[in-house]
Structure formats: C-alpha cells, structure tokens
Structures
1.
Amino acid sequence: MNSEAIKKAAQLIHEADSLFIGTGAGMGVDSGLADFRGNHGFWKAYPKLGNAGIEFTEMANPMAFVKNPRQAWGFYGHRLNQYRQTKPHAGFDILKKLGESRPLGYFVFTSNVDGQFQKAGFDPAIIAECHGSIHHLQCQDSCTGAIWEADDLQVEVDTENCLLTSELPVCPECRSLARPNILMFNDWGWIGERTEWQIAKLNQWYHRTKKMAVIELGAGIHVPTVRRVCESFNVPMIRINPGEPQVRSKNDVSLPMGAHEALEQIYSEFQKLNNRS
C-alpha cells in the first residue's frame, strides 16, 4: 500500500515548482528527541515531574517561571542542552535536497523550537518557527520587547530533579528573569516579533509560487497549528505521520511512517523520475 503512496508523493514534488515543508515534533523523533505527545511521554522523560503530578501544560507555561523559576529553567535548560547536542537525522538533508531541486525553492514552517533545521544547514531566512525558538531569549516582563540569541548562555541542570543549578538567566536591560522566546500555553508575555517577521517572509515566497507541493511531517492533532496551515493551501498534500496519518481527501497522500524512512523512500522514487526526464 505504501509503495503506491510513495510514488504519488514523489510525483507531486517532481511536478511542483516549489515545496512547502511543515513539521511538528515527530520530525525530531528519528534524531532521538522526545515529542511530549501527552503527559505519558513528558513524564517518561521527566519522572520527577510525573511523581509530583506536574503536567506538560503546566511546565510549558509562563507561570512556571513565576512559581518556580529554577524548575522551569531546569526543564528548558535541559532541553536547550539536549538540542545543542543532538545531530539531525539524514531525513533533514533529503528534505533540503528536495526543496533545492524545485525552481522556486522551498520554505519551512515548523512548530518545533529545537533549531534542528538551522543545525542541518537550512538557510534561517526560509524558516518560520511559529512557536518561537529555545535558542532565543526574552525578558519575562517584556520590558523592552527585545529578543536576543542564547548562544552565550551556558546552563547546568540537575536532570534527575529537573532543577537549574547554575545562575538564573537575566534580562540584560532590567535584570529581571529571562525566559526562552517560545510561545507557551496561556502565554500573555510572548514577544512574537521574530516569528512575525518569519511569517512575512513566508507569505512573500508563497505569492511567487504557482504550483506548490506540500509535505507535512510529524505534525500531530493535539496542537494542530502545522496541520491546519498545511491544509490551508488547498493543494494535494503529503502527510507523513506514524500515528495520525489521516488526510482530507483521496488527492492527498497518507504515509503512516516515520519521517526518515518515508523521506528515504520518496527520494529514491524522486531520483527515478529525474532520471527519466
């Protein structure tokens, strides 16, 4: 069943002048990253928080930095260190090759905050991170609206207890607590200017396209931002998701597979089509 769907996916990309790439947390699973799909996955990664009954929506929340900043930074600091150490899987390189093969190029729209596309060599100017980035910081109090890179931030974390053991990061302007520039749950203070600029660049690119292909990888239904955007273009789309592969119509391609495996097979068929051209 998948073989025909793989061929159709390769054909859609081959016939397109541009490629829209939408990704959720499932894209990073093959690199060894957790997707925190529900509390089960979150508590498996952070058992101490599970023992305390702290849910993912409570930790990924600006109130966590008010109630217990060392615990909040223990969680985000651990993730920051993990993302810095993680090597993107080979599927990222395949996506880049597919996108670069299209006459009008490609654009990435991701809900992931891990910076894995940039680490895999993608041009930051053609990436839109709709939930922000852990590699950028902002003031918890939004004092000036500034966003700055976290490159110089080094954090030490007691991973067993999910607690920051180094100094708390602070805003360089007002010296209040700094937090990741990530859109969290119930987030009243997120500074979205960087993401808004990225979305503006995406819109400019989109209006130049004429026959776009859409490929969506690892985007779940729990936070459906990426799925909804990928569906909004009203063109046949390729949905790669091992657990939630449902599509809208028979014109779409559904692949209940992991991202890396699916991309390898699509690229193999894509190369065959190129050789026939």
Note: Residues 170 and 176 are 5 Å apart (CA to CA).
2.
Amino acid sequence: MPVKTTSTKKLFPQAKKNVSLAPYTTFGLGGRAEYLLVTRDPQKVVTAIQTAKKNNFPYYLMGGGSNIICNDQSTIKGLVVVYDDRNGSSPVEIQTKGRTITCACCLPLSKLVALSIAKGFAGLESLTDIPGTVGGALVGNAGAYGHAIAETLDSVLIFDGLPARRTSSSAKALRDKTAKQEKTKRWISRKECQFSYRDSIFKRKNYALLSAKFKFNQGDKKDLQKMAASITADRLVKYGHSKSPGSFFKNILVSKVSKKSLALVDQTKIIDGKIPTGYLLATVGAKGMKLGGLKIADYHGNLIINQGGATFRDVTNLVKILKDRVYTKFGIKLEEEVRYMI
C-alpha cells in the first residue's frame, strides 16, 4: 500500500500536490498528478525513484510530454516525475569530444539537433524541430523522413529503479549504499536498447534514462543547415503551433501486412517499406473530421488537434472510429504511436 499522505511531504519535499498535467503535454490534455516533481537534475530523479520504491509509493517518469495522452477525468496516484529542461534557466550536462556529444536526457531534442548541426555533425538533422526531450525521443525511437534517433546513439546511462536498502548512518553503511546505487546506474549500448520502428526496450523495462552519448559522422555544415531549414518550414506548415502529440498512429510496416490488404493499397504511397497511416486515414475520410474538442487536420489525416475543451473520452471515441474505418477498408489494424497515461 502507498504511504500515508501525511508523510508524503517528508518523502518528496520539493513535490507539489494535486497538479494538472495538461501544461506538461503538447496535447494540452490531462487530469491531475497526486504529486508532481519537475526537475532537470538526474540525481533528483534517482533519489525520487529510490524513495518511492523503498516506500512502495507508485511513480511515473515523464519527459517533455510530446507523445503522451493523459486522462482528464482521473488523478494519477503517486508521484509523477517530469525530467525536463523546459525552463532552461541554466546549462544542463552537454559534453562534446571529437564527433561525440554526451548530454542529459532532459535536454530538449531540438537543442541537441541544433548543436549537432552547428558543429557540422550529420545524423540528426532529419529530427529538426521534433518536440520533447532526448530521453523521450529514445523511448519511442523518434524519427522523421526515413531516419530515427537510434542511428546516431552510442549508449545510454540508465537507472533501473531498484529499491535502496535501509541502512545505518555509519560511514561503511553509507559507502555500501552509494556503491549499490552506482550498480543500478549503468551505461547500456545501442544494441541493448533493442530499437525498432518507434519502439525500444524502454517501453517494456522500468528504466529511467539519465544521459545519452551520440556519435556522428562529419557532414557539411551548410548542407545540414539548409536541410534543417527546409524541415522547419515543412513542420511549421504541418503542425504550426497547434496542441497536438504529433503523428497519432504509427505508419504500417509492409512486412506486417497481408497480401490481401496490401493489394488494396496504392503502391505509389509506400515509402521506405512503410505505408503512411496519413494516407490510409485520408482514404477513409479522416481529414477535417471533428469530434468534441478534437479536429483532424484538413491537410493530414494522422494529425489530431486539441482545439480546446477536448476530453479523453473524445480521444477514445475518435480513435475507435478511425481504427474501425481503416480496418473495414483495408483490413489493417492501426497502432498508436502515442502512449496513454491513465
């Protein structure tokens, strides 16, 4: 059972009580967190998780909230930790050595991309202007224009959330505690991350991502800047400043589609072995659809926008309609790219 509310303030003195999560998501939809801790300090993340585990207190870890759908009708019980440098009041950990950049996972992805381009490092330019943090991007193996963040990743510093043992305050006990904590913090390789299309081991393991190391090839700085500028313009037209989690559904891997369903698809729409879900949704009349406070963009069938006043029920109802339409037309089951926090 969770600890009593009266003791929670002592456990998490910097956490705020009963906070709306809507401002912490790009979709602008959310219920409340029973307790919310916003930090850019990786050690505070570790300490909060250890304290929660030790006291059987439920906890959740968020980044920039760009791929999260919260339930506006519920309160997330326990502690929600937002590991995000959204204020940017002082520099977070960023180290450059040769063609390697190591950064804290709370760093906005856009800042990492901009830094790599400024140094003439090739590999992340396709991810220009994707919202959220580096950590969140790694969890979902974020990507665009045929490339993903996993391609340049070298390794990730994780904390696996094992509970700390209660110990005395003796010097030896404190050393043992520190040693145990360091064992639960470790670097894992790109291979160990088990990346695939919009997926990673981090969706299945309760790891906290603290820092990440990226290795790049040398590119032409002017070419990278030109490509980034083009992508910025394209994303401004596509997403603008709307409240949206970005692409709502994953694109469809051709290798996962039956021959019968594939025969119903316009083959000219297939890109890099994937069927764009935006095409499938446009075909079934999704563009411009409205439901409650939601609207699907007139120009992109896979972009759901919160126009204000949207509810989680609106989301679930619209998602069901869209999935049913695509399955009826193509025999293809859509899978969300977003993650629900309910």
Note: The first strand starts at residue 16 and ends at 20.
